[in-house]
Design goal:
With about 100 residues, the protein is mostly helical. It contains four helices and no strands. α2 (about 30-45) runs antiparallel to α4. It starts with a helix and ends with a helix. The mean pLDDT is about 95.
């Protein structure tokens, strides 16, 4: 969601939505790793994925959400699964950091 969209949502709902994490892995804090990892697994790690492209070949809103998180827009299930696998790696790295702390 854009900054303007988040602001409008906050006005209407009173919620505080944060933008997607677009930093590189080396720049991420543990909280960033947890957020991006859980997003990736939640969106693209489902057993049965909704369509990633519509009947005209355009990316769906589900696929376009990857762009807001700094990932390439997936056009195939395999591309979506790669994003989910990266999310699993981020979550594993987050857990290792938390255990060491």
């Amino acid at each position: 969601m854009t900054a303007a969209g988040r602001k409008a949502f906050a006005r209407k709902q009173g919620a505080h939505l944060r933008p997607g994490v677009t930093k590189g892995e080396s720049e991420m804090t543990p909280q960033d790793m947890r957020r991006k990892g859980s997003w990736a697994v939640r969106f693209y790690g489902r057993a049965k994925l909704p369509p990633l492209v519509d009947a005209r070949g355009r990316p769906t809103r589900l696929a376009l959400s990857a762009h807001a998180w700094g990932e390439p827009v997936p056009k195939t299930v395999a591309a979506a699964r790669r994003i989910a696998a990266e999310g699993e790696r981020l979550l594993a790295r987050y857990r290792r950091i938390k255990e060491g702390a």
